[in-house]
Specification:
By secondary structure, the chain is mostly helical. The chain has one domain. It has helices at 4-10, 16-50, 53-61, 63-75, 81-98.
Length: 99
């Protein structure tokens, strides 16, 4: 699930030097985000085994939003921060109303 998409990401051709520079700049942070991604997927499967899909799916759909917000914090992304925060608040509000 996580290795095949690398082919499509790499297709536009990213230089190895750019990958190395990015890895040295954010090495442990990207590894931490990758760990959260795998842990989130495992917890998603566990949630489906414990509850019905109508309760689990709205919460799962917010996982991308939480990933973006965590990326903002860990990677110190400042572009369009207000928009991202507003989108996060709207997503959480929407999930609340769906429950």
């Amino acid at each position: 699930m996580w290795t095949i998409p690398i082919i499509f990401i790499y297709l536009p051709y990213v230089k190895i030097s750019e990958l190395k520079a990015e890895f040295t700049r954010t090495n442990w942070k990207i590894a931490l985000l990758a760990f959260f991604n795998v842990a989130g997927y495992a917890l998603q499967l566990k949630a489906f085994s414990m509850a019905e899909a109508t309760k689990v799916i709205p919460i799962i759909q917010t996982s991308s939003m939480f990933t973006v917000l965590l990326g903002i914090i860990l990677l110190k992304e400042k572009d369009h921060m207000l928009r991202k925060i507003i989108a996060g608040i709207l997503a959480v509000t929407g999930v609340y109303f769906l429950m």
